[in-house]
Design brief:
With 445 residues, the protein is an alpha/beta fold. The protein has 17 helices and 16 strands. The longest helix is centred in the C-terminal third of the chain and has 21 residues, at 407-427. The chain starts with 6 loop residues before the first strand and ends with a helix. One of its GO terms (molecular function) is transferase activity.
Length: 445
């Protein structure tokens, strides 16, 4: 046992990039703030291969369990089955790992809210647990009340446009019932974790307090546990100044390409690492973006054959997204509106083209477009999930979106800079992120 270590924190993330990233960023911040804390970050052997080379503080280490769940590389094929495996097959190997950990005994276990079994584990071992919610506070609130609307305990009102609207979720603006989703298998499994949150000792929200204060304050009044908004929970501290091109040795080719582009001229396009677009819609998007004549940097995993060589853009299978978003040549962000991407776009102060597909992406896109007013929706009003958007529409939309001189564009970009300033204050000295992380660490130790 290291005599300088007085406290031990165990982190158990849900094995998905959108969940592991905020958990890792939180743990790095905690480890860097106190040298007398040891943090054990539990991952499968496969995820250790993905994360093992990451730079991290010396007092943050990995704890590894066998690959008892389907591979990250195939989880798209059966997401309900993958989710169920995380809820039924991880608990036993995590228990065995905890039995082998060096002292001191864990002071707290921070776990992803999806992994409901960790609450039971904490009770058995008499260890306090802290639930980390990696989506927006608004989605947490609506999820808490999901069973009420499903069972008819909360009534929906019909708006003037003929859509069912729910307007009595505390702290949440009116929301169409269609955006709440159906009570299918995935929703049921996710809700199990939310139901057990009041049994935890702490709730950590990966949200920026200033952007969701009404919902967060309402949750604090409603729930019987301590709540801390620790967002944005992104690795933002090295990307504050985006006016200086990134140069030097080992600079990726995509960064060299960005360095050579005019200021605010490139559209960054990323549809996420999980749910894929239909092939027909992807064909239309690729053709529309290329027909627009706008420069683009596109993250595409297996679809590179669709792109014309010399078509005005750069295609990569992966990139350091936040570093790209903060580059001076990037003028806009086409996003699937996952919560991490939403926060990174806001932090970078970029206007966004919102193209959500499933889950919380839909409500995140409404936050971007309707609440923050820093983006446009790609999908037409009233268009269903299967409505094909043609290349001509996409080309025209992209051209208007990237027009730096239009009045509507200037207004949107100005609003994006206002949201950016809110994010920068949150991560600054004395900001809400620092204040809440310090308060959580003080309370848990």
């Amino acid at each position: 046992m290291d005599p300088t270590i007085n406290y031990h924190v165990v982190a158990i993330p849900y094995p998905g990039r959108g969940h592991i990233n905020p958990m890792m960023n939180l743990c790095k911040l905690m480890a860097s703030r106190r040298a007398d804390i040891l943090i054990t970050f539990i991952v499968t052997e496969e995820w250790l291969g993905f994360l093992g080379s990451e730079t991290k503080p010396a007092n943050l280490r990995f704890g590894t369990i066998p690959n008892v769940i389907p591979s990250e590389l195939v989880r798209d094929a059966d997401f309900p089955g993958f989710l169920e495996a995380t809820l039924t097959k991880l608990e036993a190997p995590v228990e065995r790992l905890l039995d082998r950990l060096e002292p001191p005994k864990p002071s707290v276990v921070i776990y992803d809210t999806v992994l409901a079994w960790v609450v039971r584990l904490g009770y058995r071992r008499n260890i306090p647990v802290a639930a980390l919610w990696t989506m927006s506070a608004m989605v947490f609130s609506t999820s808490c009340h999901h069973d009420l609307i499903r069972n008819g305990h909360v009534k929906a009102n019909v708006s003037e446009r003929g859509k069912d609207q729910v307007d009595n979720f505390p702290g949440v603006p009116s929301i169409p019932t269609a955006d709440l989703g159906e009570g299918q298998k995935v929703a049921h499994l996710l809700l199990e974790g939310i139901v057990l949150v009041p049994k935890a000792q702490y709730l950590l929200l990966a949200s920026i307090y200033e952007l969701e204060y009404q919902v967060i304050d309402t949750l604090k009044a409603e729930l019987p546990i301590a709540i801390y908004s620790i967002g944005p929970a992104i690795p933002c501290f090295t990307y504050i100044d985006n006016s200086i091109p990134i140069t030097g040795h080992n600079v990726p080719d995509y960064m060299k390409w960005l360095n050579a582009q005019p200021r605010c001229s490139v559209l960054y396009i990323a549809q996420g690492s999980f749910i894929s677009l239909s092939s027909s819609q992807l064909d239309e998007i690729v053709a529309g973006v290329q027909d627009s004549g706008v420069r683009y940097l596109w993250v595409a995993r297996g679809e590179t054959s669709l792109f014309e060589k010399g078509g005005g853009g750069f295609v990569v299978p992966w990139c350091d997204q936040l570093k790209v978003l903060c580059h001076s040549s990037i003028g806009g962000f086409w996003s699937h509106c996952g919560w991490n991407s939403t926060k990174e776009g806001a932090f970078a102060g970029l206007p966004m083209l919102a193209y959500p597909i499933v889950f919380d992406q839909i409500s995140n896109s409404k936050m971007i477009v309707e609440n923050w007013k820093m983006g446009w929706s790609v999908k037409r009003e009233g268009g269903g999930v299967d409505t094909l958007i043609r290349r001509e529409e996409i080309a025209g939309l992209v051209q208007r979106f990237m027009d730096l001189e239009s009045e509507e564009g200037k207004e949107m970009r100005g609003r994006a800079k206002e949201i950016q300033e809110i994010c920068r204050r949150a991560v600054g000295k004395g900001g809400s992120a620092e204040t809440n992380i310090d308060a959580f660490m003080k309370d848990m130790l």
